[in-house]
Design brief:
Number of domains: 1
Mean pLDDT: 89
Helix content: 10-25%
CATH class: Alpha Beta
Shape: globular
Structural class: alpha/beta
Strand order of the largest sheet: 1-2-3-5-4-6
CATH topology: Rossmann fold
Number of helices: 4
Oligomer: single chain
Distance between the termini: 26 Å
CATH superfamily: Alpha/Beta hydrolase fold, catalytic domain
Length: about 150
């Protein structure tokens, strides 16, 4: 079973592979990027099959290069270490007082189970993750989803 751990780097507190247990016992894994200062923050959450540890440029190198050439501001103000496919860059949002969460959906990345995108099961999992995020000690109860 995967272990979670925490560290402070790049101006953020990062919790890696945080377990979120579903109603059927499957444990999904999430990475949580948050301000270093204790507080209550709004959350931007993504949940999906694109492996939270897979960098955008490794997954879609040509798309990354084309996007950066057209919109160079994407790389500005960030080390880009945490860039994933179609999700927000925590290095740009955490300094503004947001928590960014990435959840590997069932059967993807670091989460076990059978992958079944757009299914009723995945919808229940997503809803459970949203509720979980809204109840955490660092949450102000506001959770915005960033769908894949």
């Amino acid at each position: 079973m995967a272990q979670s751990w925490s560290e402070v780097r790049d101006g953020m507190r990062i919790d890696w592979d945080v377990p979120i247990e579903m109603d059927d016992g499957i444990v999904l894994r999430a990475d949580i990027f948050q301000p270093i200062e204790d507080g209550k923050y709004a959350t931007i959450m993504s949940h999906g099959p694109y492996a939270k540890w897979l960098h955008f440029s490794d997954f879609r190198k040509e798309s990354w290069q084309r996007m950066v050439s057209r919109y160079p501001e994407i790389e500005a103000g960030s080390s880009n270490r945490y860039q994933n496919w179609e999700v927000v860059d925590p290095e740009k949002w955490v300094p503004d007082g947001y928590v960014c969460i990435r959840v590997d959906s069932r059967g993807a990345g670091r989460s076990p189970g059978y992958m079944d995108p757009w299914s009723a099961r995945e919808t229940r999992d997503y809803a459970a993750c949203i509720e979980w995020a809204g109840e955490q000690p660092w949450s102000n109860g506001k959770v915005v989803i960033h769908p894949h």
